[in-house]
Amino acid sequence: MLKFRVKILAIVGLGVLLSSEAQAISLGEFEYQNSCVQCHGVLGKGDGPVSEFLSGAITADLSILQKRSGGIFPVAAVYSIIKGEDKIGAHGTRDMPMWGSRYRARVAADVDPGFSPEATEEYVKTRILSLIGYLSTLQVE
Ligand code: HEC
Prior knowledge:
By secondary structure, this protein is mainly α. It has one domain (26-137). Helices cover 52% and strands 0% of the residues. It has helices at 2-21, 27-35, 37-40, 65-68, 75-83, 99-108, 120-136. Helix 5 crosses helix 7 (120-136). The radius of gyration is 18 Å and the shape is globular. The structure holds heme C (HEC). Heme C binds next to helix 3 and helix 5.
């Protein structure tokens, strides 16, 4: 009986998850909520709950990226920062995780089935571009 209840709960839970995902939340927003919000905050202001534990670094305000670069969203620069190829941080250290290698590891571990190893770079690109799409909606004037 208990097993049966657990199964029912699992099915209901999955249904809620699927229907909430169906509410037009983009891949970028989904990923931001899962992977970035804890440091950068809901509106990208750098005030996520984890930010106070980072080694003295001020967690970057992601809502002023566009304003800071003269009103044009700096796609290429943000892309390589997220991917993790640019050294940021004045002392050569980096609190910000390197998402390129994380996404590559996801393909290798087959977390998102359907992506073959040959499609790894496409996968990385898709995830980063969808994040950039979402970040662009957080920009202030
Ligand atoms: C563990 C905390 C943490 C997480 C999680 C995190 N970041 Fe960061 N991020 C930082 C910190 C800290 C900086 C400031 C630079 C540094 O010290 O590495 C930063 C900097 C950045 C910058 C550069 C901002 C600028 O002013 O140039 C971008 C863009 C960025 N993060 C995007 C993201 C995205 C997108 C995600 C989610 C996929 C994410 N970050 C997840 C901590 C985090």
